[in-house]
Task: inverse folding
């Protein structure tokens, strides 16, 4: 299917504006409009409230799944989904086969003030039920969306933003590499990054001096390993010492949250303050931000970073499984759409097929959608090949180890460099 025939799929809470916005986009782009709930009502000759009342939610979700599968086979359409479509991942898999998924994010207070709950079965118990459903579903909306738009402005402006996003998606733009100090990321062989994971100041300084001797392309300070990470002044002091030792090396500053494989969890407020403070020092060249943070926080940090000539990696880590190929591509596109200078994903393989999934997703992303560098890897022993073959499949950086590893599957830098050079010289 040609990209210009891709469906636009709208997801979001009841009352976020999917149907109104979808009909308008349909008219502007001359595409067919399909409302999933209306499709179900027509097919089963019952209203949605009637189906819920007579047959229950489980029955509705089953017929919703069948209907979404049928609708997903269509092309060149605007599809408005029901609010609960994200409760079954298979719905998203089906919808992404021929479509790009856009999450219309609207504040819960605006939904509560606008929504007529009389025709919405799951919201009939009032505002508390709406707020409960919002909390249950919000992360799923963000997870499955290729792009996110916020419905907090003029509807016409929002519609134009969605159309602009769609056109950006279907038109391949010129690829831009990233130059950090004397290292160009995005062309040639994958650049080798070595993390520092010391817990004490002395450990970290020893690591920095050791890395100066072995000469990686890039250094990452995994600050979540540092024993005084919660003391921002101490973090600044150590960062300054690292910069003085590694004065000519690009430094990535990374606080990895516990949920994505880090050492400790932190509040939203601390996460923003820590990263903002390190950006302002200008001792770092790149800051790693996690994709599943709040959108407004990500945009705030990107703005602050770019004002200080600091680049941004937007990353996502799944330590339990390898998502589908489409989902991997979707998350990389989402990071790129948010403004990442480099998009990154790391996943856990449970079988050889998972590694192939990651590699092929990388290839497709690089060939079709990447406008800036990407980093991908399949972790642990099974995924080692992904750390070596980036130049062939499209990953622009790989992570090796010096004294200690920060993630499963990292290879000692000397061995890693030999293999990468061997591959590079034969491509």
Result:
């Amino acid at each position: 299917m040609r990209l210009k025939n891709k469906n636009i799929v709208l997801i979001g809470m009841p009352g976020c504006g999917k149907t109104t916005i979808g009909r308008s986009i349909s008219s502007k782009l001359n595409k067919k409009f399909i409302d999933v709930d209306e499709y179900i009502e027509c097919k089963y000759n019952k209203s949605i409230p009637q189906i819920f009342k007579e047959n229950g939610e489980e029955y509705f979700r089953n017929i919703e799944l069948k209907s979404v599968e049928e609708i997903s086979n269509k092309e060149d359409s605007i599809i408005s989904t029901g609010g609960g479509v994200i409760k079954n991942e298979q719905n998203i898999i089906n919808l992404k086969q021929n479509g790009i998924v856009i999450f219309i994010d609207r504040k819960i207070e605006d939904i509560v003030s606008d929504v007529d709950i009389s025709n919405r079965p799951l919201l009939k118990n009032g505002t508390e039920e709406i707020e409960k459903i919002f909390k249950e579903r919000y992360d799923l909306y963000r997870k499955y969306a290729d792009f996110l738009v916020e419905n907090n402005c003029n509807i016409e402006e929002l519609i134009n933003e969605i159309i602009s996003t769609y056109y950006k998606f279907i038109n391949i733009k010129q690829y831009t590499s990233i130059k950090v100090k004397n290292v160009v990321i995005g062309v040639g062989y994958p650049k080798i990054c070595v993390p520092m994971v010391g817990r004490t100041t002395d450990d970290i300084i020893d690591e920095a001096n050791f890395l100066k001797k072995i000469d990686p392309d890039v250094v990452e300070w995994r600050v979540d390993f540092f024993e005084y990470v919660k003391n921002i002044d101490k973090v600044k002091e150590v960062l300054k010492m690292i910069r003085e030792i590694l004065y000519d090396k690009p430094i990535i500053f990374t606080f990895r949250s516990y949920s994505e494989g880090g050492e400790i969890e932190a509040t939203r407020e601390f996460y923003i303050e820590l990263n903002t403070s390190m950006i302002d020092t200008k001792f770092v060249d790149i800051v790693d931000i996690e994709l599943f943070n709040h959108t407004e926080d990500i945009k705030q940090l990107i703005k602050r970073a770019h004002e200080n000539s600091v680049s941004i990696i937007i990353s996502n880590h799944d330590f339990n499984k390898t998502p589908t190929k489409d989902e991997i591509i979707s998350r990389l596109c989402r990071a790129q759409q948010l403004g990442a200078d480099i998009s990154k994903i790391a996943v856990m393989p449970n079988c050889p097929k998972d590694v192939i999934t990651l590699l092929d997703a990388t290839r497709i992303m690089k060939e079709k959608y990447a406008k800036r560098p990407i980093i991908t890897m399949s972790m642990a022993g099974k995924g080692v090949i992904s750390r070596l073959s980036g130049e062939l499949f499209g990953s622009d950086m790989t992570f090796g180890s010096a004294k200690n590893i920060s993630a499963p599957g990292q290879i000692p830098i000397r061995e890693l460099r030999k293999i990468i050079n061997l591959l590079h010289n034969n491509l």
Remarks:
- Residues 48-72 form the longest helix (25 residues).
